[in-house]
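I'll show an entry:

:::
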Amino acid sequence: MSPSARRRVRSVRPVLSVLPVVAVVVLLGLPVVPGSSATPADAASGLVVLWALVDTVLRARRPLTRTAAVVFGLPVVGIAVAAAGAVTASDAITGLARYLQVFVLIPVAVMLLVRDRRGARLLLWSLVGLALWQGAIGVKQYLTGTGASYQGAFIRAVGTFGPSDVMGMATVVALGAVAATGLALGAPQRRQRILATGCVLVLLVPLALSFSRGAWIATALACGAQLLMAGVRRAAKVFAAAVAASVVLVGGLGVGASALQERLTSITQVTDAPDQSVIDRYTMWAAAAGMWREHPVTGVGLKAFPAYRDGHASLALSSGSDTEGAGQAYRRQPLLSPHNMYLLLLSEQGMLGLVTVAGSWLALLVCAVRRLRRSGGLARECAVPVCGLLLWQLVNFLYSDIGGPSTVLTAVCLGMAAWWGLAHNEPSAPVTAPATESGAR
């Protein structure tokens, strides 16, 4: 092989290494089979972990820095202790496997397979592409009345995830909007910035039609933080443009104006006149806090929240939520979690789990933001959206927990943040010209 051919192979190898992770994202665009416990994306994520292991052995280099080993080793301690206290052996095994998959194995695999900005950029755009696909399906569901049931009408946009996972499409679209916002702020090419900005504006429509208050709040905070990273003056301009677009969307075009207005108003009425969903959530939050008070150190055990729920919940808790539409028949879906990841950790894993698992997320955020502040120029193209995705996930955990096909995206976001903040390679360095590399540092 000639020297030029070797250089070409070396130049495309970092992009090829991230393709298995992109495949996981793409597979989330497939329809979800109702009642299935595993999806093609979950199966592909297992192959990603295996491929990362093989790739690391072939490259013959130490896979993790000391900091990365500590950050991803902490959750293993809390999860293992909580698994030992599970109600049944099957709960211990399945819970241990799921938590390690989402919070340790896949993030580490993504960190190892994303090697430079080109790979990270490809993965970010794949998130945007998936969001556009799911968002388009969601908008069609709203316009044709084939979505999930919402206040008696089949208008809730859920994409291919169905009414049993109403947060699935909201999560995908929100992450795509956050990624596109970061790309619009940091991309060096004007054409790419314009394209990313257009994607953000398009994704606002399905995000609104998801009627997910938690996703709205997390997206607003994450995008606002990214804008502040790019500069206060630019943030003010974009904020003004976003307000104008919202007025045109909701007021001028009348896209779900009454339903959206009612949903937005309910955010500030959670204590005065809450709806049943808010009552159920507050009741489960109180139940989770009660479990923690009885088992403060190690919690009640992995996947044990449903077994202890009725003993700690008040009579205000309903028996479940009604789901229907989007191609599925009516079903009463039981409430099996507090819909707050931090309270789920506190109730099932106690303070040990909260400190080790959530503490690793906080350490990851600190490392990523600290490196972002030290970086400059082209490095911000991927640094800003990666930090935004991690921040969105941590805020959204206040209103949701792991569960459903879209959970694999949580692991991908953690892995991208780990690539930026903890990896061996120099993600802040340009891919080509060594002269520019020293300047980027």
Notes: Residues 426-441 have pLDDT under 50 and may be disordered. The longest helix spans residues 341-374. Residues 41-50+63-272+334-429 form one domain.
